[in-house]
Amino acid sequence: MPLNFNALANRAGIVFATGYQPKELDQQAKANIIGGALSDSALALGLSLGMDSELVTAPNAGILSIFTTYVDPKVIDALVTPMRMAEIFGEKKQGDWTTQTAAFPMMEATGEVSTYGDFNNNGQTGVNVNWPQRQPYHYQTFVRVGEREMAMAGAAKLDWASMKQRAAVLTLNKYQNKSYLYGIEGLENYGLLNDPGMLPNITSAVWDNLDGEAVYESIRKLFSQLVKQTNGLIDRHEKMVLVLSPEMETELTKTNQYNVNVSDQLAKNFPNLTVKSIPEFSTTAGEIVKLIVENYEGQDTLDLGFTEKMRVHPMLQKASSWEQKRSQGTFGCVVYRPLFIASMLVS
């Protein structure tokens, strides 16, 4: 018995498409289709209709996953190692972006005395001046933004231009911090960890294997070395900074047999001492610990020098993009008085 599609449509609201009709379909089969009935002859000729016993379309298990994907409007930044050098020691502008060499005059008083006599002309005083020099290093990065990439990022609710500008700031400042620690190879530009004028390190056993009393004694030994280097110019009341890695700073929480931790002992015996951590002080050779007198008689022990910080150059309009150069310059870490820095290698 042929199917009556008109009856199904009227009774149940089900409507069938007629689908593809082969050229060989006879007139009676066409009449049956138009009339709402599908004859056996039409089925035999391969007529294909939607909602028949077999699928006409490709099998599909659901909708596109994008329609059930939640995108958080808050953008989460990747974490980077903290840049502590400028935070601890501050920065100082020295020269500008045209500077090729910087000279730092160092004066030493000279003189001799002679036996007094009313008519004696012996004895004299004078000065001797040296001119240590450093070379700056100027570096740059570009912020490049295209029209299409901005439009595509905008569709994802991303402020693409601002994100690239922030990336440029981070890139330059990360490099600046690194130059303060290691300087620039090939130039007279050194960092706090490799300045050739630094005095030799003393050594200590690994703090992880020591108790609180031994850790404190290790730091006290470092202070004794500082007093020895300065020929007694300083005492324990001097304003100093103890610089070590974050891992080593945790060792200061150890206690001695009287339940007094290392930090408390340091605060009591060195009232003007501050403790700061720098991740880069953890090296392959071992842990670096430095005890630094911040300044003596108004002269800073060291300066972190720069020629330019975030120099923003003109914005250039291209055919379908924009670009802008950002540049900086560094002198690294200029150490004026190495004798006021005592260093220890813990390994």
Secondary-structure arrangement, i.e. CATH architecture of the largest domain: 2-Layer Sandwich
CATH superfamily of the largest domain: hypothetical protein PF0899 domain
Q: Under the CATH scheme, which class of the largest domain?
A: Alpha Beta
Give me the count of strands. Answer: 17
Distance between the termini: 95 Å
Estimated radius of gyration: 39 Å
Unreliable residue stretches = 19-23, 42-46
Architecture overview:
By secondary structure, this protein is α+β, with helices and mostly antiparallel strands. It folds into 2 domains: 1-69, no CATH class; 134-346, hypothetical protein PF0899 fold, CATH 3.30.2320.10. Helix content is 25%, strand content 27%. The strands form 6 sheets. The chain has a 5-stranded mixed β-sheet with strand order 9-17-12-10-11. Strand 15 (302-317) and strand 16 form a beta hairpin. The longest helix is centred in the middle third of the chain and has 23 residues, at 160-182. The model is unreliable at 19-23 and 42-46 (pLDDT under 50).
